[in-house]
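thread from #wetlab-drylab

HS: before we spend reagent money on co-crystallization trials with iron/sulfur cluster, can we at least see a predicted complex? here's what I'd submit
DV: go for it
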Amino acid sequence: MGTIHDYTDGTVLEDIAKALHVFRKNDGSLANTDIGQRMLGNIKKFEPVIITMDQAMDSIHNASSVAIGERVCRTLHPDSVFTESVFLDELAEEMIQKGVATPCTADEAKQTLSKYSKHPLIISKVSGKHQEICRTHPPECVYWIAEKKGLTCLARIKAENQSLPAGTQ
Ligand code: SF4
């Protein structure tokens, strides 16, 4: 998985850029290719889960710190649609320290995420727990592009009021 340090020193951005490069230079499905399986392994380390707003709010209410910031990958696509992410716990603290996120209350986090309701919510594991809730922009999101390339990486929680799977928080 990525670490908090990867988020603050730019490594995560380099990794996203490399993954997008591979996706764009290979037409068609990568499902049965060695490179596809390697990429899937790397992406799955983030244990990304598609969540509802209620599930996002559960994670936000349980967090020791909460912060709002531009979604991380938008730096690579500055002309793309603007959406924001909510960072939790230690990731929130480090992103605030770095100056790329602003501390907020749970209500402010909810208001922010509500602004981009057409953008799917995905929570990702960073440094061992789910700490990044992104209002994703599917045309430029590694997870959504991986899925289009036949690399199924996104977990889906069916029940509206179901919590994240045990051990994933
Ligand atoms: S849109 Fe996808 S790749 Fe970009 S920061 Fe959000 S989860 Fe990561």
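DV: The pocket of iron/sulfur cluster is lined by residues 16, 71-73, 122, 134, 136-137, 141-143 (CB under 6 Å).
HS: ok that's useful, forwarding to the group
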